[in-house]
Amino acid sequence: MATETNGGSADERGVALVTGASRGIGKAIAVHLARSGFDVAVGARTLHEGEQREHSSTVARSDTRALPGSLDSTSDLIAQAGRRSLPVYLDLLDRTSLGAAVTTVLERWGRIDVLVNNGRYVGPGHMDQILDTPVELIDRHLQANVMAPVILTKLVLPQMIERGAGVVINLASSSGATDPPAPAGLGGWGLGYGMSKAALHRVAGILAVELGDRGIRAYNLSPGFIATERIAIDMGDFGFDAASGAPADVVGAVAAWLVTSSPTEQGNGTWVEAQPLCRELGLLPGWP
Q: Across the strands, what pairs with 115?
């Protein structure tokens, strides 16, 4: 399913595809890319406001309350920025939807210059300790957080290489680089999340080594603790206080800077800490 909204024609800056763009960090990145001149295809499962699906982080209970945000609302913000949006249904656990989403964008707009792998698995197992986590839930983390970004990357790379330019941004996490400060559910995180993020972190460097000389840039963008809608609604019970988080616009501003900056300003294949860089460059007026 895709509904294009008009907000101007494509220019030399091109087209971005952002996953997990219905809310939170993905929404912020999509909007900041639009403000930087990109037409933006936005992918997620939540097409319209009020849709319900499981988003509990633990096997101990279910939570299907509708979360705020949708591809509709993100598309409205892109249009307000004067760019085109293209909402595409994208489920990281459904490989058919990944191919369909990329095909739709390429058929409609003819190119994808920037891929932002922001979406991740949302559901039970994220905040469960290892003895309480069924193996199939760890597998879901790996499918959504590692294999889906790899599949999307492989789908967009050929046309990037053909043009001699393209950027892939993978949303990183300290959870994949450090041990948790406490057990999952008590201020830490589960094995599936940490393990899958650690695996995803290897992708950018390999892309840079193998394809850097063909115009491909890749980055691990680590947001730090961000006050998203889901953090505010879901994560207080697990020791995470949204009030202490930075706004998602911090990550959006840094992502837009990475994509529009000179290739020499940030080393290809490197790890980028969003919050310190945003402060250093003054990318978000008024923050902190």
A: 17, 168
Among residues 89, 121, 193, 219, the one annotated as catalytic is 193
Residue 229, judged by CB atoms within 10 A of its CB (0-12, 13-18, 19+), counts as middle
Locate tokens 């085109």: which residue?
A: 84
Rg (Cα) of the chain, in Å, rounded? 18
121 is catalytic: no
Contact between 279 and 288 under an 8 Å Cβ cutoff? The reply is yes
Crossing angle for the helix pair 148-163 and 95-109, to the nearest 10 degrees: 20
Alpha-carbon dihedral 180, 133, 202, 146, rounded to 10 degrees? -140
Yes or no: say if 49 and 96 are a contact pair by the CB < 8 Å rule: no
pLDDT tens track of the chain, all 288 residues? 445 544 444 456 699 999 999 999 999 999 999 999 999 999 999 999 999 998 888 999 998 988 899 999 999 999 999 999 999 999 999 999 999 999 999 999 999 999 999 999 999 999 999 999 999 999 999 999 999 999 999 999 999 999 999 999 999 999 999 999 999 999 999 999 999 999 999 999 999 999 999 999 999 999 999 987 776 666 677 777 767 789 999 999 999 999 999 999 999 999 999 999 999 999 999 999
Closest CA to 1 of 35, 48, 36: 48
Q: Does residue 3 contact residue 84 with C-beta atoms inside 8 Å?
A: no
Q: Is the distance from CB of 88 to CB of 106 less than 8 angstroms?
A: no
Tallying the residues shown for the chain, one arrives at 288
